[in-house]
Amino acid sequence: MNVMRGDEVENSAPVPGMAEYAVGTKVGARRVWLAHVTTPPGSGISPVHHHRESEALIHMLSGTLTIIHGPELRDRIDLGPGDFLFIPPFTLHAETNLGPEPAELVMARSTPEPIAEWHPELNVSESVLAAAVPG
Q1: Tens-digit pLDDT profile for residues 83-133
Q2: Looking at the 3D structure of the chain, how many domains does it have?
């Protein structure tokens, strides 16, 4: 067993404004990555990306998070407190907080490193983002 205290974990968020406190290999894990993530409202949308061979799970603690995915990035999932989301390997997506309060979540991936393959040549349509946010 290996413990890493909360004050020992640094913010490793790849997107400005987001806070991501993650562990994986830092605590000796060989097959899992785990993070506590907070995204403030109005922080913008992440670049389109996928997590290569890694499966990802999200559990929403508070606030809302919008995930854009699917063909031509036209599908949208709005997550709220208590929701879980599975993201299969190689699934292109982007995320944003369109709600009025910070989004707080726990995310796990099936690889111990924070894999993200960015696709800056792809963009999310403003019309997909313009739909009303629940709640």
Answers
A1: 999 999 999 999 999 999 999 999 999 999 889 999 999 999 999 988 766
A2: 1
Q: Taking all residues of the chain, what is their mean pLDDT, rounded to a whole number?
A: 93
Rounded Cα gap, residues 135 and 116, in angstroms = 30
Question: Measuring CA to CA, how many Å separate 23 from each of 28, 85, 117, 122, 124?
Answer: 9, 20, 19, 29, 29
Residue 26 lies in a domain: yes
Task: Tell me 129's DSSP state.
Answer: H
pLDDT of amino acid 65 = 96
User: In angstroms, rounded to a whole number, what is the distance separating the alpha carbons of residues 84 and 48?
Assistant: 21
Measured distance CA(125)–CA(110) in Å, rounded: 30
CB-based contact 128:93 (threshold 8 Å) = no
User: For 26-51, how does the pLDDT look when each residue is reduced to its tens digit (9 = 90+)?
Assistant: 899 999 999 999 999 988 899 999 99
For residue 82 the two structure tokens come to 């208590």
Q: Write down the H helix ranges in the chain.
A: 126-130
Task: Indicate which CATH number applies to the domain containing 71.
Answer: 2.60.120.10
Which residue has tokens 């290569």? 52
Domain coverage including residue 67: 19-119
